[in-house]
């Protein structure tokens, strides 16, 4: 019997590693079996401005019982999605935002959940862990976007809720003028008010850290670049890659420019001819790359989840850190549960609110 070469053995081990993480991820999405601890209450510093209620526009949202409304002056508005697979990550992200905020009582959370999700359970879970949090849950009709999604390189990227960021201007009430969008697989170690205060200039619709050293052409297929009418999309622009997991968005300008329609039009074209491979990111690049306001790279130390296939460990990029982002296949809670953490996963662990079975028995 011939022996397997070392390369084949390594490939086989890598495959088993990947399968084990996929199985763990799949088994972790039954959130009804998850219990979370109550987070400490965080208070505003004496210099924080007072919140003033400014609107009763609810836009069919589910408001939690501790909120007097949705729109406040002097608030920092944060938008995130909520789903079963990433609830544990979302809870850690919320805690990190509050813990490092100088005015935590002024942070308002806007959560988007699938219309088929158990929003009552999500509402109770968040309210129990954060009794003083101002938050709202907005139902997202994911059936409408499902028909626009093309298969990408990783199944998790094809979830309709992953496209909810395209529709924030429609989901959130008109009184919300500016929002910080955050993915669920990150933690902040700095004051989110600094990020929210990013200047957008006179025309920019959104701000995000740009990575101009990345090979921008790889985000689109040869079909795209070989078609002059398509490749001219970036004429008179200097497009750079940016990660859509951390963005500051001017919703007023977004609505005025009808940017949701512009993104949807590219998704419709993608259904007819394959012009990109990577989920919800390319439509954002097509519409905004080269026309966004800059944000310091410290606000998105991304890629800590490794690549989209194996999720191997990665190091921090050089420079200061305000936000750690486990974009990519590997998620810190999965690797920690498997006793196979990457070194940087230990930086996520202090924000984990999961109540362990041992603690529950005690």
UniProtKB/TrEMBL annotation:
InterPro entries: Glyco_trans_8, Glycosyltrans_8_dom-fam, Nucleotide-diphossugar_trans. Pfam families: Glyco_transf_8. The keyword Membrane applies. It is found in: Endomembrane system. GO terms for molecular function: glycosyltransferase activity. Its main location: membrane. It is a single-pass type II membrane protein. The keyword Nucleotidyltransferase does not apply. It is an enzyme of class 2 (transferase). Keywords: Glycoprotein, Glycosyltransferase, Membrane, Signal, Signal-anchor, Transferase, Transmembrane, Transmembrane helix. Its EC number is 2.4.1.-. Residues 1-28 form the signal peptide. Gene3D superfamilies: Spore Coat Polysaccharide Biosynthesis Protein SpsA, Chain A. GO terms for cellular component: Golgi apparatus. It comes from the Eukaryota. Pathway: Glycan metabolism; pectin biosynthesis. Belongs to the glycosyltransferase 8 family. This is Hexosyltransferase. The gene is LOC104214108.
């Amino acid at each position: 019997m011939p022996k397997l070469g070392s390369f084949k053995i390594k490939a086989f081990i890598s495959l088993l590693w990947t399968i084990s993480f996929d199985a763990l991820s799949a088994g972790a999405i039954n959130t009804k079996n998850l219990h979370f601890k109550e987070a400490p209450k965080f208070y505003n510093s004496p210099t924080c401005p007072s919140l003033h209620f400014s609107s009763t526009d609810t836009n069919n949202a589910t408001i939690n019982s501790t909120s007097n409304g949705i729109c406040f002056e002097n608030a920092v508005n944060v938008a995130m999605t909520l789903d079963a697979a990433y609830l544990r990550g979302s809870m850690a992200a919320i805690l990190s935002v509050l813990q490092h905020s100088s005015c935590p009582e002024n942070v308002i959370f806007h959560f988007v959940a699938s219309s088929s999700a158990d929003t009552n359970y999500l509402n109770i879970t968040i309210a129990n862990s954060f009794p003083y949090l101002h938050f709202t849950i907005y139902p997202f009709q994911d059936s409408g976007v499902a028909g626009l999604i093309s298969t990408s390189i990783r199944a998790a990227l094809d979830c309709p809720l992953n496209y909810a960021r395209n529709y924030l201007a429609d989901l959130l009430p008109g009184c919300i003028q500016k929002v910080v969008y955050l993915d669920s697989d990150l933690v902040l170690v700095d004051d989110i008010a600094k990020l929210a205060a990013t200047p957008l200039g006179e025309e920019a619709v959104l701000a995000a850290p740009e990575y101009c050293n990345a090979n921008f052409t790889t985000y689109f297929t040869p079909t795209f670049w070989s078609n002059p009418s398509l490749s001219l999309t970036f004429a008179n622009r200097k497009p750079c890659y940016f990660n859509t997991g951390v963005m500051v968005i001017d919703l007023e300008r977004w609505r005025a420019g009808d940017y949701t329609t512009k993104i949807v039009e590219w998704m419709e074209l993608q259904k007819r001819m394959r012009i990109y491979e990577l989920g919800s990111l390319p439509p954002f690049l097509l519409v905004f790359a080269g026309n966004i306001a800059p944000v310091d790279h410290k606000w998105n130390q991304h890629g800590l989840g490794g690549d989209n296939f194996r999720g191997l460990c990665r190091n921090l990029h050089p420079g200061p850190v305000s936000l750690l982002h486990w974009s990519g296949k590997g998620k810190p809670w999965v690797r920690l549960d498997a006793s196979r953490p990457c070194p940087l996963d230990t930086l996520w662990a202090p924000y984990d609110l999961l109540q362990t079975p041992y603690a529950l028995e005690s």
